[in-house]
Amino acid sequence: MTPHLSAAPPELEGKIVTPVDPRYLLLRSTHTGVAEPALVLLPESTTEVVAALRFARDRDLPVTVRSGGHGVSGHATHDGGVVIDLSALNRVEVLDRRKRLVRVQAGARWAAVGQSLAPYGLAIGSDDHGDLGVGGLATGGGIGWLVRDYGLTIDRIRAADVVLADGTIARADAEHDPDMLWAVRGAGAGVGIVVEFEIEAMEVCDVGYVQIAVEIKRDGRALRQWADHMASATRGLTTTVSVQSCGSALVASITAVVAGTDRHHLRAAVEPLLLIGTRLLDLNVRLTPYHALLATPHLYPGSGQQAGATTNGLLRAMTDDDATAIMAAATMPQQPSIQLRSVGGAVNDVPAGATAYPHRHQDTLVIASVFPPRRGAELDAVWQPLAGRSDGAYGGFESRPGPDAFARIYPGATGQRVTRLWNRYDPDGVFRRKEPGRGRG
Ligand SMILES: Cc1cc2nc3c(=O)[nH]c(=O)nc-3n(C[C@H](O)[C@H](O)[C@H](O)COP(=O)(O)OP(=O)(O)OC[C@H]3O[C@@H](n4cnc5c(N)ncnc54)[C@H](O)[C@@H]3O)c2cc1C
Question: From the Swiss-Prot or TrEMBL record, what is one GO molecular function term (predicted)?
Fold first, then answer.
């Protein structure tokens, strides 16, 4: 039922989308979740975010926050509640070129951030998919194409402006509220609505982009070769590996990004990757502007098009048994997608207690997904060989948040501090009362 709108604040005029509004069909769902919210609110400024939040709270409607709508849990929409959609808050501004300080609003997509910063010779390490929103990624982590050189996106956040559950606007930085800054950097979704971030960018223009396909065996040796190379490789090299069955053969698709354009450096970083596996099947090498890796062609409205179930785990150093377990998962009959991402490097320069992302000694992230009609039970079966092997998890690739996921994402003292701070900034749990969209695993 559509809530009573007669007392809507004037600043939200034209920005309240009900189910009978023609815009509703394009706004009700996300990339990963389909739902029927009662309303979608489209604020265009911080004061309008405050008005939107008050509007929902005054009517006792559950609230969910959406930036880019690519959260894998699909929780940026929900049946019967209010979605505060920040897509109109999408400005990107260089505040100080010398200090490389950039202000980005939460509703911007990373493709647009990349394009806006390219003329300045700057980039913010973010993700591999330009369609993701700034808000969800920069409150959770941010494992991008330059992660081993740049660190996580949250590692470079210097300040954030946040609308709290009671409608106050707070500034989180080292001087004003270091606790809030700590929580925003990794556990921001439970703090409030982060409207904008100040982030230190890095100097980067062109990068080397290499795609390699190799045939591999089931024994896990290829994954060990990859992990061994990454353990000693320059930080300028960041890679991902996807394992696919191709008939009776197994193929590893390796994507490598090398910061800079020095050909000697590129060759030294990438050549050992060509020796992985039993046979080189394909190789593509090019130099490209960094922002071109965050392509825009897939900027489309969310319609639940990627409604899978996803989980992940971090590994400290890959053992033979880890590699065997990953290969066992990858070859399961559920046909999962298994992806490995190199982390480490600059990520591990940050002390474990400095942000709400405490995983600072691991080198590899393993991500497993299954897609409809397969759901959570099938994902559990796929993950079974890896359960118990991993050391922590990343919230960005977990589609089923809950106590078990929380304990892996925020282990030990980090979890206690996250809970304490969420309760301090949002005592009524406004931002934790989430109903999943339909179609989740
Ligand atoms: C196809 C795909 C590729 C991905 N690739 C990467 C990758 O390369 N690297 C990586 O690190 N992650 C990656 N992810 C995971 C991604 O980081 C998270 O899903 C992230 O939450 C997406 O941000 P969003 O703004 O689009 O999400 P949304 O769906 O808009 O939001 C997700 C959740 O974040 C919270 N949130 C959103 N905006 C705000 C805000 N402004 N203030 C406070 N809380 C907020 C809310 O709780 C919301 O439910 C990928 C996900 C997908 C689906």
Answer: oxidoreductase activity
